Amino acid sequence: MNERLILVTNDDGYDSKGLAAAVEVARGFGRVVVVAPETTQSGMSQAITMYNPLYLRRVREEEGLEIYAFSGTPVDCVKMAFDYLLRDERVDLVISGINHGSNSAVNVLYSGTMGAAIEGSFYSCPAVGLSLDDHRDDADFDAAVVYGKQIVGDILAAEVELPLCLNVNVPVGRPETIKGIRLCRQNRGFWREEFYRHEDPRGREYFWLTGEFVNGEPGAEDTDEWALANSYVAVVPVQTDLTDYRQLKNLGNVLK
Amino acid sequence: MNERLILVTNDDGYDSKGLAAAVEVARGFGRVVVVAPETTQSGMSQAITMYNPLYLRRVREEEGLEIYAFSGTPVDCVKMAFDYLLRDERVDLVISGINHGSNSAVNVLYSGTMGAAIEGSFYSCPAVGLSLDDHRDDADFDAAVVYGKQIVGDILAAEVELPLCLNVNVPVGRPETIKGIRLCRQNRGFWREEFYRHEDPRGREYFWLTGEFVNGEPGAEDTDEWALANSYVAVVPVQTDLTDYRQLKNLGNVLK
């Protein structure tokens, strides 16, 4: 039996606490290669680096684990792994995360973690984005590791149809306080920003994004936001055909 | 009658040729405010700037037109416009573009132009992303302007249902060579990268993304890729619920 190969990436950077937690999830299932950003890439969505050269650095290697840092975005890391470093190998799964902060609802669109997971799912293997609903530096990743292992195990054991990309969000709390896994749809909502304004030391005004999430359907029990708020692990399968089929019908009467 | 207010942004930067073409489209329909990136932001997807302060610069103003440059991503520009500069006004439409290069098929996911258009559609007005299938510096935007005006005119004249976000891609060629508008779905496909490798002047190896698009359904006449290749303007309505409803059903048997 060939050993499985798992690619791990994230958007918080190769040396983040959440990446170590993702490696812990992955190592139970096979050999692990990490290709993760040199620097924090939160909010980078599915961005790619078009106008800059990128540098790859081998950070360290031990039995069953190789870690590389790449100077690009999370999606660049996935491309570097599949199209260069591992191009002659078969990758069985991509894990992206574990993110410091949830990527539920519309956050899936802005998330570098999910950008990388989506990109991974383009390479004929399942991809799982793992996020913990806790931004704190001392966030407790135990529950995310427990449920990450369970979900990855189930995916690898089953004959899943491809493409498959999961957006997994784990609530704050110890593993025993979590009620289980819920398959959900993406909650509708949006962000409204308050731009923090201040003057820099040279007297130039600057702005800083500080937003607030507006939940468009707070009572909807089949959504990821509801699951998270009610101590469930929210699992949303994600696809990338953005076509609005409803509007496609409507517009026949609008565009001449 | 109140004059309409149109927000224009892009990902190629406030002083690009394509932006001037988008302003030409917009000015026929009302007062225009441009908030566009200071620098090129191609491939920035729906990225937001979380860890840097952002600077806003008023570039110039003339009758019915104000132009601002913002140091962030295309999505940052849209947020700056709606949540700060224009927060007390009603914006009737967002135009993002006109992009140098098409954003058909899976490119919608990586595109800063479409990231901004999608973000615009979160603010209770229609949003139109315009792209021209020509990367050259001397690209001819005439056809994109002609069809951009037609589509924007139709959208503003109709009582369109919201949210509405259009991904409009215009083929290369003079306006008279184009066969008309086709409503399409997003073509399935993906990119495979060839990393260009070279050594920098200090002897460090670097990589540069150079990809090739793989069309997953080359014969499908209802897709944007087919329309573009056959001299039609491709119009794909775009939505942002990424839930994979098919997999949502399948996974009930996989995740315990």
UniProtKB/TrEMBL annotation, chains A, B:
It is found in: Cytoplasm. InterPro entries: SurE, SurE-like_Pase/nucleotidase, SurE-like_sf. It catalyses: a ribonucleoside 5'-phosphate + H2O = a ribonucleoside + phosphate. A divalent metal cation binds at residues 11-12, 42, 99. Residues 6-192 form the Survival protein SurE-like phosphatase/nucleotidase domain. Gene3D superfamilies: Survival protein SurE-like phosphatase/nucleotidase. Its EC number is 3.1.3.5. Binds 1 divalent metal cation per subunit. It is an enzyme of class 3 (hydrolase). Its main location: cytoplasm. GO terms for cellular component: cytoplasm. Keywords: Cytoplasm, Hydrolase, Metal-binding, Nucleotide-binding. Its cofactor is a divalent metal cation. GO terms for molecular function: 5'-nucleotidase activity; metal ion binding; nucleotide binding. HAMAP family: SurE. Belongs to the SurE nucleotidase family. Nucleotidase that shows phosphatase activity on nucleoside 5'-monophosphates. This is 5'-nucleotidase SurE. It comes from Alistipes timonensis JC136.
